[in-house]
Fold each of these.
Amino acid sequence: MSPSKTLLIEIRKDLAWITINRPEKLNAINREVMKDLLSALDEIEEETGVRVLLITGSGDRAFSTGADVSDFLELDREEIYRFAELGQKVFDRIESSEKPSIAVINGYALGGGMELALSCDIRVASERAKLGFPEVNLGLIPGWGGIRRAARLIGVSKSKYLAMTGELLDSKRAEELGLVDLVVPHQELKRRAEEIAKTLSGKSSKALRAIKKITRLGSFMDIVGPDLEKEFLADLSQTDEAKSLISAFLEKRGKS
């Protein structure tokens, strides 16, 4: 595998682990992370011996807290649009991959981090995990397919509620709603995730591919949704309100 500054990549027999490695930023996702993810996914797709992909975050605090909004104040509308486009491409690649994927949620999965988890086929969460779409608190929206994917899992109304309120869910509530498939004790998280991955690796790859393809069909929002997300996120990122909210958020985070 090609070296990466932002990811840790490990192949263990027929399993591939991708770990976002920015613990000092709570594994926030910037353009470099996205580009590294895309390259890693391309290489793993070509690894015929790899049957299942597992994705997690470095450290014990966060799977990923989403887009690194410290960049947003410096990016113009076109750059935000292209960042949203890149994120959609990466998460669509995960969802459409012939290899099953498991999100191993070891802590906060917020905003784009939750969108990343939702692009995976299965989500296993630590009892410590917190999930949500807090973008609205910054005058923004999820731009990488998260609302659409959440709507498929838990329905339109509950998805709108989460995106409009910015409410954070503990892992048990996320499991009750259907956003998470399994909640386990924190110290057992990776072991249990690998057990599931090994179960999948023993199944018919053709059958798994068929299941993935079938469950992706039938959502008309996939036709217009991606373009709407990019347009709205890019427009909102340039408003005075969003810039003020992001600045206040970054200032508060710097003091904590």
Amino acid sequence: MIKFKYVVATVGGLLAVAHVGLLGYVFHRPRTPMVPTINIPHGDYSSYSIRAGKDGYEIEYKANDPAILESERTLDLLKDKKGLFGGGIEDRLEYRRDQYTMDGTRNIGGASTQDVEGKYSAKDVECLVADAGARSQGAMAGSAIVAGTLTPALSNIPYIGWLAGGWALLLGQKGGSAIGSQVGSVFNDC
């Protein structure tokens, strides 16, 4: 039989060698710098640059790059025109440099002449205010007409009269609002 102390010595020796090997790996493993994971948002017009060194890192991010697009056009024209009634010379040199914003609007040095999404003209705002007022007045008139004529007759229906009267009021309010909007757009020239 194998003696017990030889088995214990063999297992202990294997554990000691494994422990020393593990400590050697931990103390002498190659050190790699810890680099953070940065999720930078990106799109069609975004750009970024990252500079890293011993002391840290620096990120430069532009969310709308290029913000202004440029276009240049030149035309050199030198013609010697000879027509039916004599000759003439046309000497033309044109140079045009335009700047455009991202949405395609040409920059003319002041306010944009094209409608930009989300912006309303004074006439649009006036029409919106007039439409809101006309809808409100039409809804009040529609509910008043239904409440005076149709609701008393519907409320006498057994079991569901209260529900039918409420539905009639809501439908009258909705119909009056739509009619008020149409009448308001005619009177306010919208």
Amino acid sequence: MLKQRIITALILAPIMIGGIFFLPLQEFMYFIGFIVAVGAWEWANLSGVSNQAGRLGYVGAVIVALFAIAQLDAAHARWLLWAALAWWIFAFVLVRSYPKGKQAWGGVVPRLVMGLIILLPMWVGFVQIKAYPASGELIMYVMLLVWGADVGAYFAGRQFGKRKLAKNVSPGKSWEGVYGGLATTALIAVASAFYLEYQYALFSMDLEKWITLLAVTAVVVMVSVLGDLIESMVKRHRGIKDSSNLLPGHGGVMDRIDSMTAAVPVFALALSQLNWTILL
């Protein structure tokens, strides 16, 4: 299993990094759109749509929605980021109350709608970040936050984990793991700020910028945990372990992007509201 995970990661990482840094905006939109389409294929199954025609129909609906969103200007598309923020606040309530309340969202249609709220804003977030200067560094930053949070949570949870984070949804996760993830990503934030300050030399990080950076980082990391927990909740309701077996050793695409679906739109929204003064 570990060998499979490493081989898959070694194949996927260069593809993802190449897409982030070298694809122009238009091609990048299609690149992320393809990832979203695969995620939609898997989410249809998580929603209870097991037949191929139904899953293809859901993918088609998501693609049509992406093309419609692409016609909007950035300001109007940004409303989807606000909708995502509202959704992830509500998602906290769903996770905390599970298994109570599953009658409201456990049906096929509510879960399909949930998938739209989860997948579409992630695409908008990626595309809007890509439009910024130094977009490659910014996208890598939010991805490093997600990966760093996962790694920090894994080791801190194994070593110190006692208090369950959401025992009915994901019994293996602990609050100590969350704290380990926050500590790890704080180090990533500090290192990234020093790197960007050196690389672009546009200003010195003063106290206000440090506080803003660390606060945004903490919010993004905490909401990324919700992304993971929501998919775990839906998988538990569906009675499956992985969203698919497309990625040997890793499960499915949704299993790899679940945290990103929450982190990316919230990070993109933070950048827009801070007028791009947080890092550059």
